[in-house]
Design goal:
The chain is α+β, with helices and mostly antiparallel strands. The protein is built from 13 helices and 16 strands. It folds into two domains: 93 residues, OB fold (Dihydrolipoamide Acetyltransferase, E2P) (Beta Barrel), CATH 2.40.50; 318 residues, 2-Layer Sandwich (BirA Bifunctional Protein, domain 2), CATH 3.30.930.10. The strands form three sheets. Strands 6-10-11-16-15-14-13-12 form an eight-stranded mixed sheet, sandwiched between helices. A five-stranded mixed barrel has the order 1-2-3-5-4. It has a three-stranded antiparallel sheet with strand order 7-9-8, with no helix packed on it.
């Protein structure tokens, strides 16, 4: 007999004379003549209640099993007389896989702080909150792939090891085989300095200028010593690139992707989202639904600066043309002024990367950021500079060496076309969807300064 997932048992359309389920005991309650066992296998938020009659082999097998123990239960799925549940199982046989010592098992039935649960990240997926968070993470990834597949984007894998600094920020993890103290990179494995990538964008551009539409979805790394709720050293990025596309195409793609994901998660993860709406971020469901009610706002950077300057707010970071928007500015625009997601575009070139296409005004570039409530920037992207002379001059202007980007410049030498792409931080997206305020809690095993356990 094959094992049935608890989610399938709870969604059954009729009773079943014999079923086999496996899971961990969430609670056990002994009554006269029988005991109740709430079983969960991680497939859904709800538990399956199992009734184990006293004096049966199943009850004997249950023996010392308490919260945290792992069981296999075979029995009859019957209509439940209890409120809030359609089915329950009458246990006929129980196999005990593993006990959990009630004196030391850390997940007893009570509320635990996020800080405590981060210290037992290997067990926290068994809690309601984190089981729900990681199921939503899974469904969100599925929605990403479904969206791009429907739009004929090819999934590509860009290198994790790189010799280039895509962002020019320098905050990269170095990878080396050299012994401590040796600095001559010519003697290293790759005969030059090697780093963990902060973005697969440059390689994705090359693939897009051959395949037309591509996207990568994988881990990226930044050695930024920021111990904040918004930063992690290892995080995941969604990076689409489109040939024969401009900034307008890019803004449409970003809005459509965000809408598709929200719609999917609202439809498929209703029970898990309700948990977060009730216990983590009251108003979450209303806010997500409202994001779908009207088109996202769009505003040039210069106009956004004027809105902030005239807001009457005393921002911690002053605003003027030429300064980058801080989270407090981004949230004000999305949460208060527009009360919906907003795309800010045409940023000053001084605060953006070398590869962004220069606008005709000579001051701005065809860049865009999507700002959303509670998070701030969710997506950052641009139309890429496809003109060889402009791109070479900009690399030189920023103090970098064109020869380090020879292959990237080749893309402009041979059949260059307008093209555009963006990066979407997957963990920030999950924070938007769940209302979780700390990036450490949407990553199963977060890597932050001073923390690489698990």
């Amino acid at each position: 007999m094959q094992r049935t997932l608890i989610i399938d048992a709870l969604n059954a359309t009729q009773a079943c004379p014999q079923l086999r389920v496996c899971g961990w005991i969430r609670t056990r309650r002994d009554a006269k003549g029988f005991c109740f066992v709430e079983l969960n296998d991680g497939s859904c938020l709800a538990n399956l209640q199992c009734i184990v009659d006293e004096g049966t082999p199943a009850h004997a097998a249950l023996a010392e099993a308490n919260t945290g123990a792992a069981l296999q239960v075979t029995g009859e799925l019957v209509a439940s007389p209890g409120k809030g549940q359609q089915w329950e199982m009458r246990a006929q046989d129980i196999t005990l896989f593993g006990l959990a010592d009630p004196e030391t098992f850390p997940l007893q039935k009570k509320r635990h702080s996020d800080e405590f649960l981060r210290g037992i990240a290997h067990l926290r997926a068994r809690t309601n909150k984190y089981g729900a968070a990681f199921r939503i993470r899974s469904e969100t990834a599925r929605a990403v792939h479904d969206f791009f597949h429907a739009r004929r984007f090819a999934l590509v894998q860009t290198p994790i090891l790189t010799g280039a600094d895509c962002e020019g920020a320098g905050e990269m993890f170095r990878v080396t085989t050299l012994p401590p103290g040796v600095t001559d990179t010519s003697a290293d494995f790759f005969h030059q300095q090697c780093n963990l990538t902060v973005s697969g964008q440059l390689e994705a551009e090359a693939l897009a200028l051959g395949l037309g539409r591509v996207y990568s979805f994988g881990p990226t790394f930044r050695a930024e010593n920021s111990n904040t709720p918004r930063h992690a050293a290892e995080f995941w990025m969604i990076e689409p690139e489109m040939a024969f596309a401009d900034l307008e195409d890019l803004m449409e793609l970003g809005e459509s992707l965000t809408r598709h994901i929200i719609e999917h998660v609202l439809r498929v993860c209703a029970a898990d989202l309700k948990l977060f709406d009730s216990f983590v971020d009251k108003g979450l469901l209303e806010r997500l639904t409202a994001m779908l009610a009207q088109p996202f706002a769009r505003v040039p950077y210069g106009e956004a600066i004027n809105i902030l300057a005239n807001s009457g707010r005393d921002f911690a970071y002053p605003v003027n043309f030429g300064t980058d928007l801080q989270t407090e500015h981004e949230r004000y625009l999305a949460e208060e002024h527009f009360s919906r997601p907003v795309i800010v575009y045409d940023y000053p070139k001084e605060i953006k990367a070398f590869y962004m296409r220069a606008n005709d005004d000579g001051k701005t570039v065809a860049a865009m950021d999507m700002l959303v409530p509670r998070i701030g920037e969710l997506i950052g992207g641009s139309q890429r500079e496809e003109r060889l002379d402009r791109l070479t001059a900009r690399i030189t202007e920023l103090g970098q060496k064109p020869e380090d980007y020879w292959w990237y410049l080749d893309l402009r030498r041979y059949g260059s076309v307008p093209h555009a792409g963006f990066g979407l931080g997957f963990e920030r997206l999950l924070m938007l969807l769940t209302g979780i305020s700390n990036i450490r809690d949407v990553l199963p095993f977060p890597r932050t300064p001073g923390n690489i356990e698990f």
